[in-house]
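Re: the request from the purification team.
They wanted to know what the chain is likely to look like in 3D before they choose a buffer screen. I agreed to run a prediction and write the result into the notebook, where they can find it.
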Amino acid sequence: ATANRVALESMVMARNEGRNYVAEGPQILRDAAKTCGPLQTALDLWKDISFNYTSTDTADFVETPTANI
């Protein structure tokens, strides 16, 4: 929980400071991990993991065209 909180707070703070947190995200997290052991452990553990996959979820609804009146 501590790692998640520190990571979130670091990213929100970067956004509020006007930083490009999308491009700078990894560096922002590495900087935050210098003073947060649990975040450093999490970054070390998850460093080679990616979540790039095609969704297998299907839509729960079907669009129905309606006439404009």
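For the purification team: The first helix runs from residue 2 to 16.
Please add any questions underneath this entry.
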